[in-house]
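Help! Submission page says 'invalid entity' but I think these are all valid:
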Amino acid sequence: MALIKPRSRRGGGRPTISDVARKAGVGAITVSRALREPERVSEELRRQIQAAVDELGYVPDPNARALASARAEVFGVLVPSLTNNVFAEVVRGIYDSLSDSPFRIQLGNTHYSGLEEERLLQVFGSQRPAALIVAGIDQTPTSRKLLENAGCPVVQVMETGPEPVDMMVGFSHLDGGRAATEHLIEAGYRRIGFIGARMDPRSQRRLAGYRAAMEKAGLFDPRLVTTTPVLSSVPLGRELFRDALAKMPTLDGVFCNNDDIALGVLFECHRASIDVPKTIGIVGFNDLDMMQVAFPSITSIRTYRYEIGRRAVAMALAAISGDRPQERIVDLGFELKRRESTAR
Amino acid sequence: MALIKPRSRRGGGRPTISDVARKAGVGAITVSRALREPERVSEELRRQIQAAVDELGYVPDPNARALASARAEVFGVLVPSLTNNVFAEVVRGIYDSLSDSPFRIQLGNTHYSGLEEERLLQVFGSQRPAALIVAGIDQTPTSRKLLENAGCPVVQVMETGPEPVDMMVGFSHLDGGRAATEHLIEAGYRRIGFIGARMDPRSQRRLAGYRAAMEKAGLFDPRLVTTTPVLSSVPLGRELFRDALAKMPTLDGVFCNNDDIALGVLFECHRASIDVPKTIGIVGFNDLDMMQVAFPSITSIRTYRYEIGRRAVAMALAAISGDRPQERIVDLGFELKRRESTAR
DNA sequence: CAACGTCATGGTAGCGCTACCATTTTTATT
DNA sequence: AATAAAAATGGTAGCGCTACCATGACGTTG
């Protein structure tokens, strides 16, 4: 006696695939198939199985699934910041594109740290994700190797560059910085400053674009550049602008690293009764929606963050299903939005 | 012959726990223990095992772990929006608190939809998460049941209320709305409007606080309230303010649902040459850092979003490790920041 | 009508790990 | 020194699912 195994169900008593199979009077594997490749199961069984699933409230265990198939239905997403609106928009695009797919999202925050990125890539890799989406193109050699060996599609987002690990969606920050600066020059500004916080690689490239445009026009002066590694914010924009002005009182324009900084500059101009755009011209970067309602409205470089997220998912999904997109590098560009802040 | 099993390694050839065990000359279970409860393994073996782990580059498979232990090292986090700074801050607090724990984060975006929340809860539940953190207290009955049966600690964040599913960290939006409105009244404003977008339950409670204060002072008039279900933004704030003013030209103050709206109102005042705070007083909600540098600086209700995220994790972690905090409802409060926009 | 696909279904054997019990060794305790 | 108790280690048996192969029932073809 005592032949009956207690069957402790350490899993907590939720129905399993064999419960469903038993109830539907089929084999477990058929249930598995009915759920994943319905077209390979006869309509009759499919219906029976569906009924059993509904009745029991069966939900497949993703962990067991991942273990058995050596592939988790997870997209790993790595961004440097969660609060920066720019990345928040990319992430939103990714979530929206994946919301009615079976894929879950594993989001990591690198805090702009290469080391943290490596650590997270390690963690993510251990899950055998279906795809990896990472911000930027400046991975450390270790990170790059991890990405190359991830064994899944990889999309680098927010930038374009010559050597994708796999695929890429973004735009040229250098060109963006150049376009912003050229616009200020064309509008008649001459002593144009660059103000930037959190000088990550993307900001560096915008600065390079600024510098290229200024040098080409014979206007560059290193004292026009004010930067800090501190995290960007509106209050910081105000302070940096005051610094810049103290350093260079003849300043007549500023290209800001991003819109937060630009807003800080605008507020300080109000406070100090500096006329915008007459005395100072302002250009931001990213074109947050508040730029168009600011008073005066602020010229900015519009970027397509949400679209970048969507596109990245679309490309990854295509690669997963076998047909890799022919173009591995997608440049979504940007647009200069001319507004009152530079309408001299 | 052919006795040697090919051992196909469909897992892709990464080292497993038995590889480590073999190399270290111990049993697999000892490796498992050395990794999870090092104090239960002798120092010598621990060192040998660590050496083997390092040499092989072994990383445990979280899926196998979750399957075997019926518990995934995952925190499920549910927020209604990814781009709203308020939730981004909460999420950041959660990430920062969990960054050097073994727990991963599964983040879900409900888009303010109860149905979507139910769906995500279902998906999350199937993973047997270690804890669940959800925004708000207005779950549908189905969601509430799912939370109650999740079999793990649950923390509701951003609000306080009488009946937590399990634990709660937040503050009273009603009191916040009341405090903001009372401040305007004390400052001498009388025709005080309420302007709100995306009237989610939290906004509704702020409105209720506004109404309570206004009625108490005998100032309430339904025509003073301007709301819309549309998603909140700075441009929308501007528009709603224009609507409000058209409807009620004698308006002399506004309590805004949130800071985005407040900023939109401020910009419109600039544009229409309406003096702030003389002609119109403005109060925002949440106190984004730009409020203090705006010109004029904007009075707002400071809320502790980041801290809410951290606290939620701390409480969940305590519950996981067995000692549930004695206070299951934590009220982190808020603070009225008086600034120029209401300094009549 | 034999020989050969093709389709629908099922059985078996793991995926990589840990819970649950042994079993052995060491350390108190009397 | 004998015994109990605690500490350290290991073996076995799954967790819930799917890859892989096997089986049988049908056509299809020459």
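Support: the input was valid. A stray whitespace character was the problem, and the output above is from the cleaned input. Residues 1-9 of chain B have pLDDT under 50 and may be disordered.
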